[in-house]
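B., you asked whether I could sanity-check this one before it goes into the benchmark set. Here's the sequence:
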Amino acid sequence: MRDLLRKCSVADMEFIVRTLECSFNLSDDKGMRRGLEEYEELGTKQAQDALAQAIERELRYAGSADLAYLFRWLFDADNAGVKVNEIITDVAKKLKVKLKPVGTVEAKLERLVKGAFETSFSKLTPEQQRKLLEDAGVGKATIEDIMGKLKVVGPVMVIPLVIKKVGVKAAEKVVTQITVGLIGKFIGTQAAKELVKQMATKFPVWAEWLGPVAWVFTGVWLALDLQSAALRKTAPTLLYLGLVGLRDGPEDGPGFWEDEDNG
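And here's what the prediction gave me:
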């Protein structure tokens, strides 16, 4: 987990810290916030490592029941939270994503994003799928070509087709739109919009990531308890970290998007 967190930019770290913070906390989310401020000020590897450790601690706390966490803390404060792999398994089950149990945390989170994306995209209407591709900068003729092929091979092949026809950047845009829109469903669409607005003010790249389509279409397939306090913290954090992992290419290699076992 910490190796993946070290790949995060300051903007990524701030988003994750904001997502994990809460009004009632038996752990130390204020210490996590202080760690972020120190990392922003100093930018040192030591500050980055300390922040990564604090984020992992708060994620493990978020995945725990408060009473169970307190009981474990009495005996082993450093390992009171639920293991990260257990949280990944729990979130995957909630999202109805079947994950291969092998691999690093980063590989599993990349597969989580892939599975959640494929489920979301397949539930969109053809017109919504066209709009999503158009918003990612895919030309109309290419969209119709892709849509025609999807009727034969199925919607899960949309990313390989976009990569082949348009390139990786457009594919990244499509995946990011769906995934961040899904994150918004967990933390609340209005809260997510406000958070993105705040983040875009401080980190302009955020404004380039999302179009309005993400907030309209994503998450319509969800049939689970979005009031779960744990899920509102763990699912957005893990999905976001999966996006971070995919930035430098999937750990499972170039066939990642075509492999039906990856997610």
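One thing to flag: The CA atoms of residues 25 and 66 lie 9 Å apart. Otherwise nothing jumped out at me.
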